[in-house]
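Field log, afternoon session.

UNIT: design team B
ACTIVITY: writing a sequence onto a fixed backbone
BACKBONE:
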């Protein structure tokens, strides 16, 4: 994730119904101690972690951190209370045991000041930190507990598979969030590491990875298993599909073949060149024998997505699920990877401040997922209109009197409403696209807007949260500021009926049916063509 670290929640799927995972979040009390504010000059400058995957005892891994150059008398070492993309506190420190701070053979004083924080005294002598990590789940789908985001946790199954979320294994010093991180794994024979992390030279039997800072480390999960991997060259980007199935069935070739045409069309939609060198799909499948029942969970990252799946071995169903995931998640290489706010750039893992722009990160990404297939000729007008109707219908289950900017800032407190970003958020972006096309006479829409925002900002330059609406207005048309005020800063009724009518589409607000008008004017048809390419 370079300096960016926002990932977004995929819905948990149970059976045939999509249920927002957000609904199952548990809010834990804030147990973290007050941060120790240190001068960076008093801290070291790098993290050097070592883990052996060959030494799993009681579903635990031992972790060693080598530390150099700390000058402070006291430091705080933390594990995240929460990570980007989930909105219920997880308290990852709860899985840490036998925590020790060492100066050679001597043990330094350590006080656990909260569930996620350890205070180390005489830290100027510190050379090593050692601890053990319990995994968060054994087999996905077996005894799955509501309220816990399995895709943010780790699982260790000796000689079979390791699902590693780095926020579970590795901590950070308060004040040291921006230090470079080096991680070395001793791996079992025949195992392969799939990740978007940059690899570093190492010796036989080990893998070494590096991240520019702790946020980038957390943003890149790792799947260790025997190889079931396919690499796809999608323009300038290598897309890795890496799978593990406890049945032993090889999944990657079929999944890769299924999603390749989709990724190619997404590349074309984004202008031909993608803003990322490597993207990784990590897919874990646990087998059960219950017909027509499945459970899925996932967490999206800037340059990878982790999917957990529990079902019968039904390749068509699994391929369809991953296709749906890929259609949305791959578009996150635009936002938040290249378009994100300071709240994301400087994410606080113990007490995060929420951005007001989830309408952009999730709503725009979901709208792009809708718009690309019809724009690229992959689906019919009827299919597209049916998807709009479905979102309007589902949106009615939520409280649409809450402005989306307000809901975004209160995402942790209003998890019951979070899924509306995929519904109302996407429809707001649809209306924005139509309005931009109308004002520009077809020359400019959200497709061009997101490209221009990515060029203006990019992965290492965040925008200021309270300035984005004015920036977009300056890039487009004065009328757009009023649009943002009415439908994002306020919760005005969406102008979906009037906007669709401008494109020659009739919308019945009672039945929710949307049909192409048989008497559309040439002007209406022209706007529809500008918008949908047909």
């Amino acid at each position: 994730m370079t300096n960016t670290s926002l990932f977004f929640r995929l819905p948990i799927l149970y059976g045939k119904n999509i249920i927002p995972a957000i609904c199952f979040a548990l809010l834990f009390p804030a147990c973290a101690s007050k941060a120790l504010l240190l001068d960076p000059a008093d801290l070291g400058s790098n993290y050097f972690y070592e883990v052996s995957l060959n030494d799993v005892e009681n579903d635990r891994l031992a972790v060693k951190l080598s530390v150099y150059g700390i000058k402070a008398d006291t430091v705080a070492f933390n594990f995240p209370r929460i990570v980007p993309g989930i909105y219920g506190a997880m308290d990852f420190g709860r899985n840490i045991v036998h925590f020790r701070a060492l100066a050679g053979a001597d043990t330094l004083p350590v006080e656990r000041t909260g569930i996620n924080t350890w205070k180390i005294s005489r830290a100027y002598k510190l050379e090593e930190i050692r601890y053990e990590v319990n995994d968060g789940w054994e087999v996905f789908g077996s005894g799955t507990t509501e309220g816990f985001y399995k895709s943010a946790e780790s699982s260790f199954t000796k000689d079979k598979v390791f699902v590693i979320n780095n926020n579970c294994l590795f901590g950070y010093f308060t004040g040291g969030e921006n230090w470079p991180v080096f991680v070395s794994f001793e791996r079992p024979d025949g195992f392969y590491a799939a990740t978007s992390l940059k690899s570093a030279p190492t010796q036989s039997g080990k893998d070494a990875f590096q991240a520019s800072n702790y946020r980038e480390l957390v943003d890149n999960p790792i799947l260790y298993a025997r190889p079931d991997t396919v690499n796809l060259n999608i323009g300038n980007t290598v897309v890795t599909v890496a799978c593990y199935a406890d049945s032993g069935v090889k999944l990657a070739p079929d999944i890769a073949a299924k999603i390749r045409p989709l990724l190619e069309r997404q590349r074309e939609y984004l202008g031909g060149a993608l803003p990322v060198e490597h993207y990784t799909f990590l897919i874990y499948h646990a087998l059960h024998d219950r017909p027509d029942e499945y459970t899925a969970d996932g967490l999206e990252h800037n340059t990878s997505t982790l999917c957990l799946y529990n079902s019968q071995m039904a390749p068509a169903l699994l391929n369809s699920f991953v296709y749906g995931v890929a259609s949305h998640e791959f578009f996150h290489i635009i936002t938040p990877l290249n378009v994100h706010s300071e709240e994301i750039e400087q994410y606080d893992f113990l007490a995060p401040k929420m951005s007001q722009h989830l309408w952009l990160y999730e709503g725009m990404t979901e709208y792009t997922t809708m718009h690309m297939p019809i724009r690229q000729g992959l689906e019919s007008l009827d299919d597209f209109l049916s998807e709009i109707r479905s979102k309007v219908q589902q949106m009615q289950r939520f409280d649409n009197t809450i402005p989306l900017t307000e809901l975004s800032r209160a995402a942790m407190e209003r998890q019951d409403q979070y899924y509306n970003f995929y519904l109302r958020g996407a429809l707001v972006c649809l209306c924005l696209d139509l309005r931009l096309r109308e004002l520009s006479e077809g020359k400019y829409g959200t497709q061009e807007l997101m490209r221009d925002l990515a060029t203006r900002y990019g992965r290492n330059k965040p925008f200021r949260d309270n300035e984005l609406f004015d920036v977009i207005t300056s890039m487009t048309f004065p009328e757009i500021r009023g649009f943002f005020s009415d439908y994002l800063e306020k919760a005005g009724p969406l102008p979906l009926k009037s906007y669709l009518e401008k494109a020659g589409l009739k919308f019945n607000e009672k039945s929710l049916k949307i049909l192409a008008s048989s008497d559309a004017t040439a002007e209406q048809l022209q706007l529809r063509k500008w918008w949908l390419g047909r």
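LOG NOTE: The first strand starts at residue 12 and ends at 14.
NEXT ACTIVITY: expression trials, pending approval
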